[in-house]
Design brief:
CATH class: Mainly Beta
Number of domains: 1
Largest sheet: 8 strands, mixed
Helix content: 10-25%
CATH architecture: 3 Solenoid
Distance between the termini: 50 Å
Order of helices and strands: HEEEEEEEEEEHEEEEEEEEEEHH
CATH superfamily: Hexapeptide repeat proteins
Strand order of the largest sheet: 1-2-5-8-13-16-19-20
């Protein structure tokens, strides 16, 4: 019922105001600073766990049947997909029997996805089943992410790999704007100077 209500509210906001509205509900908690675009498609919303200050932009697809956890402040730009299962192998192996196969399907891949606090997911990216991103990761546009990545990883490619440490660029910005240091340290911890 909650998933239906949230979808209806997002549709109404799009229809009336053509914009994203603040405020979502996840796992029985009100998240006043979280925004989900009306055009985002979320399957198994009851298995999606959001923190506050999350932004899920237009035309994203989140399939959460095996569970998806999205940490505080995560930004998912647009046209990205997060999937917690993959059925293409099972579909090919079983053919028409895929639909009524008794028990576990051979080739079925499933696993929860976890995206740490203040990660950025670039456009046209895919986060695959079983992936885990530590806090502060940056996923570059068009990346296909599978696996576990340490915090502050800059992730790029297909298949995606860690290509840099986001703290290097953060340090440059913080040197130019020292007044932001306390805000950064509050969530990221103290960086070496």
């Amino acid at each position: 019922m909650r998933a239906w209500f949230n979808r209806s509210r997002r549709w109404l906001a799009r229809w009336l105001w053509h914009r994203i509205v603040f405020g979502e509900s996840s796992q029985g908690r009100w998240l006043p600073h979280t925004r989900i675009a009306p055009s985002a498609c979320i399957e198994h919303e009851e298995r999606l766990q959001l923190a506050d200050h999350v932004f899920i932009g237009p035309f994203n697809f989140i399939e959460a049947s095996a569970g998806v956890v999205i940490g505080e402040g995560v930004q998912i730009t647009h046209h990205a997909s997060i999937v917690s299962h993959s059925s293409h192998r099972a579909q090919r192996l079983l053919g028409q029997r895929f639909v009524d196969w008794p028990g576990p399907r051979p080739g079925w891949v499933s696993g929860p996805v976890e995206i740490g606090a203040y990660c950025f997911i670039g456009p046209h990216s895919v986060i695959e089943a079983g992936s885990r991103l530590g806090r502060g990761c940056v996923v570059r546009a068009g990346s296909v992410v599978r696996g576990v990545f340490d915090e502050f990883s800059v992730i790029a490619g297909n298949p995606a790999q860690r290509v840099a440490d986001a703290r290097v660029a953060d340090r440059r910005w913080l040197d130019q704007h020292p007044e932001l240091r306390a805000h950064y340290d509050a969530w990221a911890g103290d960086l070496p100077r």
